[in-house]
Hints:
Elements lengths: L8 H30 L3 H32 L14 H19 L5 H28 L1
Helix pairs in contact: 1-2, 1-4, 2-4
Amino acid sequence: MLLKPTTTRRGLLFVAGTVWAIAGGLLAYRGLSFIAEEALHPVVLFVIGAAGGALFFVVLFRKISARHILRILRITHERPCLFSFFGWKSYLMMGLMITLGILLRNASFIPRVELGTAYLMMAVPLLASSFRFFHSGVKM
Length: 140
């Protein structure tokens, strides 16, 4: 017998929001830690990271999260698979981004303070997108 965990479309929105919030939270934690430990002027880098992340959200992640939300809302199955909050291309992209993040973190030629700023720039749009998933789940 095949076990296929299922949920509702609303449940998928909350799962997606949770996954994106965890990813954003982890990146924010690492980014803020790297900046706080090694920056001469951490507040400046916090602002740069947050502003860059907000711009990244407006330019790219707003569209990406809207596309994922719409795809979830259009699922016709009464109880879709718990893991269907992403399509296969998004899982592939997520795997590549995690791998790249690990490689960059372990690369000795990239200063941690700059990596921390980049992590923060990725954390902000992920967290903002997670709120969009949660909002759509509540609104549904």
